[in-house]
TrEMBL record:
Transmembrane segments: none
Coiled-coil annotated spans: none
Peptidoglycan binding-like domain span: 10-64
Name of protein: Peptidoglycan-binding protein
The species this protein was found in: Neptunicella marina
Amino acid sequence: MPLLQLGDAGEAVAALQTQLKKLGFYPYTIDGDFGEKTQAAVEAFQQQKQLQVDGKAGHITLGQIEMIVKAAAATPVNIEDITLAQQICIGSDASNVAHHWPIICQSMRRLDLADPLMLLMAMATVYTETGRFCPIDEYKSHYNTSEGGHDFDLYDDRHDLGNQGAPDGALFKGRGYIQLTGRDNYRDIGERLGMGTKLVQQPELANDPIIAADILSMFLKRGETGIRQALTTGNLAKARKKVNGGSHGLQTFTQCFTRGEQLLLA
């Protein structure tokens, strides 16, 4: 096997980049140029596999890469696999992913949303909205609370959310895996789930893991057509907007979704 290093170019380098891309280390265009990005990808692989970290692809590094790529090709990748989910959700508590991801998958399956595309959408959404990968209350911030105002006062009169003044802002703040927000969303999703007005009367139920999973699934089901169209055309910003209503968290969402795609296609 040849030694590939910074400054090299050609088909061998392109093949190396392709393999590194399959393993999730090289999220860039395959150009056959061993530049700094390729070197960094080689170093990241070497570090993860506890090889000598020198950024050069010699026979040991190339052999390890080839062996892992072949093993991955022989093993079907399942996005419902907990270990894979933990790899995608870098930085989230691994025990949280292990506990909550199966609950979410089960709920998504009930609504016929358990294909890789929509499951990855769900995963990236939860990762972006909660960070820790568990149902949470929305944090108080300048986005929802005015300086000197009571908690979530900026939501109180958000008629686009169906809120009817204080204390609706605090009552219907973001909760759960998807950060369900606003009286109208609590009412609509609750009714779609067959809960009647229970979710409006007891909004804290949105943090119960099973109910939170059903809320996430139903929210995605409600916008399924637009979300699928956006994802299949690679418009992650539009897919994110279908859930968040804007671009908040777009970078985190994009990184998680892209990382998942790379691992699934490896």
